[in-house]
Structure prediction request, 398 residues.
Amino acid sequence: MSGVLSREFAGYAGQSSMIRRMFEAGIKLKLEHGADKVCDFSLGNPDLPPPAEVAEGMRAIAREADQPFAFGYMPNAGFPWALELLAGELTREQGVRVEPSDVMLAGGAAGAMNSFLRAVLEPGDEVLGVLPYFVDYGFYAANFGGIFKAVPAKADFSLDVPAIEAAITKKTRVMLINSPNNPTGQIYSEAELTSLAAVLRRKSAENGRPVFLALDEPYRFLAFEGTAVPSVLPLYEYSVAVSSFSKSLSLPGERLGYLVAANSMPDKNVFMGGVIMASRVLGFVNAPVVGQKLLKYAIGKQADLSVYAKRRTVMAAALADAGYEFTSPKGAFYFFPKAPGGDDAAFVELLADELILAVPGRGFGLPGYFRLAFCVGEEVIRRAAPGFKRALLAVKQH
Prediction:
């Protein structure tokens, strides 16, 4: 007899993130063989140090620690001065006017996304995503009685807008996309997003209520070869962008994220008030104080993109030399090759035998592929190259 979990969460145990499972398997392999022998591409955990301005800010914040209310509460959306700073930076980044009232700071991008969904979903509402997708999106929707459905992307992982249109029903409330994409590295073009916005505008009118477009973009700064990352905010009035400083400032553990709404959104102030209240009643209360204070020093800065660009080149060369089939990522720090033999779980086991850790594509809703995170040193990628070859050869021999 157990009963310590709800039926819903007891069922979640078998669906837990394969990313985390592989990461934890890697810990065991490193204990058995030594950390320097294991090539761990499982978790998107930035290994680059934060920009120097972060350390400068930490020292300054420490000097303020003996002052009253140095780490006290503030308005749920964030310090007014922090919202002002962020709105200015987003105006530059997004290419559209952003006011402080358009922005809410949150406990990571996940906190912002959950607050948004809590504010707009009715039980039974549908959240559409694009296959493959970050697995926690389904959990986020279910948190508030929503139903997550994924629409397949095209072969090159670009948006299949006609398929999305066909999938929209009267119950569809949110179209959730992620660009630059985890796990594929795809970046959706302005033409794709404009076409999608037209569909959502038409469907919103037919349904008699808005279908929101939510863009999850924590990898926005990680775009290669000059690829543009278009903003959804000027393209569609019921759009929101959700992001964080986890990747750009290498601060994933600080959990500092934000939501920004299109300034053109009808009833925008009502919407933002609801999202801010959702953040409070969900227990986030406010974004971390230390993270907000760091914005004074580090906003507009980012980790060194050139390091990631070089790693992307090295990883592409290793995979191509071994004979893998893959689409080169335009952004983020992931490759999503086809799994030789078609069985992604079995192939990931073969890689593990070579002390290479990857994540099966089924962990992102798309079997037949596997994900590699290249936020590791070049020496790790080079060390893995012979193992990639041996694993592929083992499949061919069978």
User: Anything to note?
Assistant: DSSP finds 13 helices and twelve strands in the chain. The chain has a mean pLDDT of 95.
